[in-house]
Design a protein that fits this description.
It contains 6 helices and 8 strands. By secondary structure, the protein is α/β, with parallel strands linked by helices. Helix 1 (15-27) links the parallel strand 1 and strand 2. It starts with a strand and ends with a helix. Bound molecules: flavin mononucleotide (FMN). Flavin mononucleotide is lined by residues 11-17, 51-55, 75-78, 105-107, 112, 116, 119-120.
Amino acid sequence: MVNSKIIVYSSNTGFTEQYAKLLSRALDMPSYKLGSVPDCHRGAEVIYLGWLFAGMIVGYKKCAKKYSVVCAVGVGMSPPSAELAEGLRATMSIPESVPVFYLQGGFDIAKLKGPMKLIMKFKCREIAGRLNAKPELSEAEQLTLDMCHGPASAVSEASLAEIIALYR
Ligand SMILES: Cc1cc2nc3c(=O)[nH]c(=O)nc-3n(C[C@H](O)[C@H](O)[C@H](O)COP(=O)(O)O)c2cc1C
């Protein structure tokens, strides 16, 4: 085994990959796309980052079957909240011993194709309607609204601070 801890990720349009690369640099840990992890890492402990699809962390179950996932991170377009992370734990049946984080990623509808693009066109309309009805928006809510209107991203190393502190 080359490294005892590695980062594995699944990314559809690149925002989760950006987080994985930032984390990889900050923790000096190699990062690999799920499905492209070299065999020498068999048995490694994994910090897993996956993009959110309908409330699920894409690839988590597949990764947890093969590796010992010691931290699970979901990346979505919603504003972050502690309830969201706990909701992901319940939905994905992540054991209590594994810390779960939610990070606000980014969204660019132009990078989607076919049914996903169509679904998200309607979803964005619904989300924007809900946020526009609020008298005031937090910075994260404003970013989600921006994502509904065009490409926008919340990806930053600062958002990874808690995870970096846990594994540094
Ligand atoms: C089909 C589809 C479903 C999505 N479902 C969710 C969701 O349930 N919750 C959420 O916060 N974001 C959701 N998103 C937004 C993505 O998770 C978000 O844009 C993420 O940052 C994309 O990461 P990626 O660029 O690594 O693929 C969805 C996006 C698509 C295309």
